[in-house]
Design goal:
Radius of gyration: 24 Å
Number of strands: 4
Strand order of the largest sheet: 1-2
Distance between the termini: 56 Å
Number of helices: 9
Helix content: 40-55%
Strand content: 5-15%
Largest sheet: 2 strands, parallel
Order of helices and strands: HEHEEEHHHHHHH
Structural class: mainly alpha
Number of domains: 2
Low-confidence stretches: none
Shape: globular
């Protein structure tokens, strides 16, 4: 079992108002079978796969490779489309069960992999995954704008991990407890502080942008896309933290922006 199946569990249990339509990850969070499950659920799985040139590409029997001479040497294996067609209803039933939260993706895959001989539904999912994975890899090569977008999205994820690593200084950044409740408290507190910093950064980034526009400086949408609220160079994570309950909810206005020395 890879962590990718548990990521799918989390996406299906998304409780925010923002609909999730795509998941980007690196090779560590990638497994071939997930391509099928994401597509059946109406989502897109977009991993950045290491050693992409060594990955197998597949085709259906009706694709004439003579029309694609540059790909002929790279696409030799066939997809067993008959398995996909025969088990299509079963695959949709599985997707519906996960969508309605009748079963989790991680539990279902564990059950399918537990059979002494490979379950027919597992075989069909693997064939369908080959198709979706091939489309993803070809799109990665052919569409530079899509490739840049996915890499930018992955960099945002790495920036979030870097912020959490910077904040997670207690016990030398290690989870030492073996009790589930204590682990949940520790991880929950880390998420809470991370979210608070992202909100604070977002609010003051907006103030900075307003100030720059007030100074009639030109700011493009592309410039704004490069600004992420996960910066932490201005934070001092050491010392004491004081939370005054009496001040929570009160409005004190914004702090003055620090102007660069000219």
């Amino acid at each position: 079992m890879r962590d990718a199946t548990y990521v799918l569990d989390a996406i299906l249990n998304n409780e925010t108002e923002l609909p999730i339509v795509e998941h980007t990850t690196d090779t560590a969070g990638y497994t071939e079978l997930i391509f099928a499950l994401f597509d059946l659920l109406g989502l897109r799985f977009s991993p950045r796969i290491r050693d992409l040139a060594d990955q197998k590409l597949y085709r259906t029997v009706n694709v004439k490779m003579e029309l694609y001479p540059q790909l002929k040497a790279h696409i030799s294996d066939l997809i067993q489309t008959a398995r996909i067609i025969d088990d299509w209803d079963e695959m949709l039933r599985l997707a519906g069960s996960m969508k309605l939260d009748w079963v989790t993706a991680s539990l279902m895959l564990q059950k399918l992999q537990a059979f002494p001989r490979k379950h027919p539904l597992m075989r069909s999912l693997q064939e369908y995954s080959k198709l979706i994975k091939t489309i993803h890899i070809l799109r990665w090569y052919a569409d530079e704008a899509n490739r840049r977008r996915l890499n930018r999205q992955l960099n945002k994820g790495e920036a979030l991990h870097s912020l959490r690593s910077h904040l997670f200084l207690a016990n030398q950044g290690k989870l030492r407890s073996q009790k589930d409740e204590e682990l949940r408290h520790q991880v929950g507190c880390l998420n809470w502080v991370t979210n608070a910093i992202i909100v604070w950064n977002t609010v003051y980034i907006e103030q900075v942008l307003r100030q720059l526009k007030h100074e009639e400086l030109s700011i493009s949408d592309e410039d704004i896309k490069a600004i992420w609220p996960t910066r932490y160079g201005h934070l001092n994570v050491y010392g004491k933290y004081l939370f005054e309950l009496a001040r929570i909810g009160q409005k004190y206005g914004f702090r003055s922006l620090r102007l660069p020395t000219l």
